[in-house]
Each structure stands twice: as structure tokens, then as C-alpha cells.
Amino acid sequence: MEFLIDRLPLYLSGAGTTLLITLLGAVLAFALAMVVGVMGTLRNPVARAIATGYTETFRGVAALVLMYWMAFAIPQLVPYKIDALFAAVLALGLNVGAYGAEVVRAAINAVPKAQVEATIALSMSWWRRMRAVVLPQAWAQMLPTFGNLVIELMKATAIVSLIGVSDLTRVAQEQRASTGETVAAFTGALIAYFLIAQLLIVGMRLLERRANRRLGRPVATGFLALLRPPPATATGGGRR
Amino acid sequence: MTWDWEFTGRIIPDLLNGLAVTVQATVLGYTLALVLGLAVALVRRIPVIGTAVFAVMEFIRCTPLLVQLVFVFSLAPNTLSAFTIGVAVLGVHYAAYTAEVYRSGIEAVPAGQWEACRALSLPLHRTWGAVILPQAIRRVIPPLGNYLIAMFKDTPLLFAITVGELMYQASQIGGVYFRYLEAMTLVGLFFLLVSVPSAILIRQLERRYAAV
């Protein structure tokens, strides 16, 4: 315990880096997921082909491989070295964005047909239909899976320690190497990761509540309900 | 520097060796995850022990696989090989996921099936073995398949604990020749070659087992 209290500033700065990469990666992944996911629902075959190509490629390759490729292979092709942190954010964002795009596409397709037909009957423009009718409903549907993806992204950030970014994992490994206290050093990092995950879960649940409330659906209230696991579905969490 | 085909040809055998280790680790780890996950899903139904097991699994699911690998690797005795440790940690980590999948499958079995078992006073092992599990597992084949692909893509992490899989071979080659381009690109292509066809396969499975 004392070991960890002494090193709290170090672990906190590591956790800060982990959170920063998670946030940047999540922003990139979200933007990609939204654009590519909507493209996947269009009738235009070119847009659909681009969407499929992107999701299949970046879902198929592990973020670690992608990150190494960017950090070590690209400098060999072009005379430019990508910063380690940037390579990590790019790799994680592209990878998770591909999963997210599938979620967005599925959620948009799951919006009842009658809703879309109603907007056509009201002669709404495509843009207005998406913004006012389809996306708010799809949003509530995609949020729970986005929650899982954010946790996966946060856990995947540990790979940046392998290319020298001082995140939580790196801090734990350095502390272990310099003190030999394996159990304390790693337990500290594991607990920090767990706490960050719980923080993200609560944040995502709050977003889910807001989305459902705006649609006029009943929502659970109280803080405890935020921590409870969501009801199971037979198709699993949709992680991959 | 540009792409060197001659060099590419020379490194392919090493990379294929790595791919073989990757596949072995995936198959063994996945088998462990399937068995352990089912055991966890069943144990979770016992009142107090189940809650404790759930808490442990939740912790495993909320922390990075890489940290778990390095942690166990540095604690484990020298007699265990890195490969064994890697497979064990992979298996346990993914068991935390497959357990939830099994659970959802078990809960999706209609209550009438349980009632019928009770009405026929089937013994417990027959209830589970002949009625509940066959229906539950059939339902969860597609999500379980997704985790197989997911695990395959997580095996590069094993290179952090010096298991000689694909990624390890590639970074060794990169380190020796100071050429990462060919090896890393090939690693990416190998992964695509395996995961894209398997994703298509899973989609077909989903269609076949959908709406049971």
C-alpha cells in the first residue's frame, strides 16, 4: 500500500496519458464510425463499397499491428517519422472506428421502416430526416454498444507502452523494473484501469439515459442503477 | 527506401513459422476459454460464490490483456514457458467474455423448457446436458465465433512476453535488418487473410442459426 501511495503522482500521470489517448482515440473513432456508418446505409454503390472496404480492412487487423506499421514501416516509405502517441491514436481510432461503423449502420437499419416512410410522406429532405427522425432513434440503440467499444478502446491503449509512451502500463513496468515489487506495481495499474473503466461505464450510462429520455422512453433513475450490468442479449455485447 | 521483393521472399519462412505459433496459441487459448467460460457461467448461478466469481470476471474484463500478460509472466516460475503462460492468460481473459455469452444463451432458453424438465423429474445432469445446454449453445454459436476472431487478433500481444508468434518474428526481423516495412506489412496481410474470410463465415453462421 505504501508503495503505491509513494508513487501516486507517477501513476496519476500515467493514468492521465491513458485517458488522453482514450479520449483522442474515441473522438477519431466516433467521427469515422458516424461518417462510414451512414455511408454504409446509402444506396450509392461507391459509398457502400468504401464503407465495406474500410470496415473489413481495419476490423481485420489488430490495433497493435497497425500501430507498429505506422510507427516503424511508414518512416521507411516516406521521410517522415510519426510521433508515437499520434501513431497510437491513429491506429486505435481507425480500428475501433471500424467496429463503430458497423454499429452505426446496424442501428440506422434497425429504425422502423414506417418512420422513414413518414418522413418521405412529409417530404423531408434526406438531411432533415436523418437529423430529426432517424439518428435520434438510432443513437439510443447504438449507445450501449458504443459503451462497450469505449471500454475496449481504453484497454487497448495499453499497447502504446510497447512503443515508449508513458501510460499506466509503462509506469507499472518501470516501477517493477526499478523496485522489483511486481505485485504492487501491477496491482496499482490494474486497479487504476478498473476505476477508469467504471468511470467510462457511468458516463456512457448517463448518455444512454439522456438519449432515452429525449425519445420519451422510461429510464431507470438513481446512482446504483448506473453501475449494474445491462440486461443480457442472446447476441452478446456486439464487441467484435 | 522502397519495397524489396527479394528480402520479402527471404523473410516469409520465418513469418510462416510465427503464424503457426499464432494459430496454435489461438486454438489452445480458445479451447480453454470455451471450457472455462461455460464452467464460470454455471458457477455464476450459485448464490454467494457466483457473485464473487462475477466480480473477479468483471475485473478481468475491465483491465487490459497486455497488463495481465506481463503481470502473470513476471510472477510465474521459470519452469513455465512463455507460450504456456500466454495461452493460459488468453484463455482466462476470454473466458470472462464467453461466460457472459453462455449466460445470455442460458437465459434465453424459454421457461417452459425448465418446467418440462421438472414435470418429467429429469435429474439435474440430464436437465442441463440434454435440454438446456444444447439449446443455449446453439443460440450463442455466432457470438462465440466472433470471440474466436477477436482472440486471434489479440495474439500479437503475446510478443510482449517473448512468445515467438507472428508479431514477434516480424519485430525480430525488423530489429536485425533495420527493415520493418516488408515484415510489418506482411503481418497485416496475414491477419487480413485469416480474419476477412472468417468474418464472412461467421455471418453465414449467424444467418443459419438466426431465429432459432
From TrEMBL, chain A:
Single Gene Ontology BP term?
A: amino acid transport
Known CDD domains for this protein? TM_PBP2 (cd06261)
Does this UniProt record's set of keywords contain Phosphoprotein? no
Q: Where is the ABC transmembrane type-1 domain?
A: 15-201
**Which Gene3D superfamilies would you find in this protein's record?**
MetI-like
GO MF terms here are: transmembrane transporter activity
Tell me the protein family, please: Belongs to the binding-protein-dependent transport system permease family.
Name of the protein in question = Amino acid ABC transporter inner membrane subunit
Its source organism is Thermobifida fusca TM51
The taxonomy runs: Bacteria, Bacillati, Actinomycetota, Actinomycetes, Streptosporangiales
UniProtKB/TrEMBL annotation, chain B:
Where are its TM segments located? 20-42, 49-73, 79-97, 157-177, 183-202
Enumerate the InterPro entries for this protein: AA_ABC_transptr_permease_3TM (IPR010065), ArtM/GltK/GlnP/TcyL/YhdX-like (IPR043429), Ectoine_EhuD (IPR014341), MetI-like (IPR000515), MetI-like_sf (IPR035906)
Q: Which family, according to the similarity comment? A: Belongs to the binding-protein-dependent transport system permease family.
Q: Does the keyword rRNA-binding apply?
A: no
Q: What is this protein called?
A: Amino acid ABC transporter inner membrane subunit
| Protein location | Cell membrane
Q: Which GO terms describe its cellular component?
A: ATP-binding cassette (ABC) transporter complex
Q: Which residues form a coiled coil?
A: none
Membrane topology (UniProt): Multi-pass membrane protein
Domain ABC transmembrane type-1: from-to ranges = 15-202
